[in-house]
Design goal:
This protein is of the alpha/beta class and 314 residues long. It is built from eight helices and 16 strands. It has two domains: 2-116, Alpha-Beta Plaits, CATH 3.30.70.120; 162-312, Vaccinia Virus protein VP39 (Rossmann fold). The N and C termini lie far apart (60 Å).
């Protein structure tokens, strides 16, 4: 079968929104090529360090690639994608130049090519994150391994916003904690929380593809007795009180979460860990958190990304 590769050049801030547009258009998978990854050195499972090939990455910004079958509906689908991308501008999302390019590939090419760039990496003080298809023997017995198969869900667990959340969980999550993971994606933060000793983790996501992916990864990591995954819109209709609420979302969604009363879901001394915030929108998010009855107690950053840790103000 022939597939059309649709490449959208955009910004880090817009990755998740663009990805959602492509999935809604029927894409069976995406590839994220982030120019910032070129600044990193990676380590393979045999301990050898390697760098990514600059020829496979944009000079700046991010390429989000999706694959659609070449058929009589392709033209209409592309027009729908363009319209949806234009609509994102209404939400004040920085799309960068938003340039679209196209090329055609055989099925075998796109189905496996991206996997060669996804290698085991150290994250935080306690973890390795490793793809399920890699033969991986940790060289540090004190680190726990999180196995991930992203499938068609967004994220490999190594994006800066996810890493910031894991670092915050390592600092603030106490043993036997009750955790709510809003926008769980592949489930990596829920799995990390379980492996750090949480007693119960409730993971929710609006995207059914993400829900299925998270359920698979939870079972792969043998934490299904601790983590439950379900479909839900942010924290709507979520009940109970939580020690930690972690939300790796876009800034706009963190603001909506705050306005929706997430503070009411926190136990006394409970913490909200909010990430996915591009630096120019940090003050806007912090203002929303304060209005919701929270106060920011720590800011973590990685490049242009910021994570905020907040607790109840009273």
């Amino acid at each position: 079968m022939r597939w059309s590769e649709i490449c959208i050049h955009t910004t880090e801030e817009a990755i998740e929104s663009v990805t959602n547009v492509l999935y809604e258009a029927g894409a069976g998978g995406v590839v994220i090529e982030d120019s910032q990854d070129l600044q990193k050195t990676f380590q393979s499972d045999d301990g050898a360090e390697y760098s990514l090939d600059p020829a496979d990455y944009p000079i700046e910004g991010v390429n989000v690639k999706a694959y659609l079958p070449v058929n009589s509906f392709l033209g209409e689908t592309v027009e729908e994608i363009k319209q949806s991308l234009n609509n994102l501008l209404l939400y004040d999302i920085d799309m960068g130049d938003g340039r679209l390019t196209f090329s055609e590939h055989n099925e075998e090419e796109w189905a496996t090519a991206w996997k060669k760039y996804y290698k085991p990496v150290r994250v935080g003080e306690h973890f390795y994150i490793a793809p399920t298809w890699e033969e991986f023997q940790p060289d540090d017995p004190n680190r726990k391994v999180i196995e991930l198969d992203p499938g068609m869900a967004f994220g490999t667990g190594t994006h800066p916003t996810t890493v910031l959340c894991i670092e915050a969980l390592e600092k603030y999550l106490s043993e036997h904690a009750e955790v709510l993971d809003v926008g769980t994606g592949t489930g990596v933060l829920s799995i990390a929380a379980a492996k750090l000793g949480a007693a119960r983790v409730t993971a929710v996501d609006l995207d059914q593809v993400a829900v299925q992916s998270a359920k698979i990864n939870v079972k792969l990591n043998k934490v299904q007795d601790v983590v439950s995954v379900s479909r839900n819109n942010l924290s709507d209709n979520v009940e109970g009180k939580y020690t930690i609420v972690v939300a790796n979302l876009l800034a706009e969604l963190v603001i909506r979460l705050a306005e929706g009363g997430v503070a009411n879901l926190l136990q006394k001394d409970g913490k909200l860990i909010a990430s996915g915030i591009i630096r120019p929108k940090k003050d806007q998010v912090e203002e929303a958190l304060i209005k919701s009855g929270l106060r920011v107690i720590e800011e973590l950053d990685s490049g242009d990304w910021v994570a905020l840790v907040a607790e109840k103000a009273n």
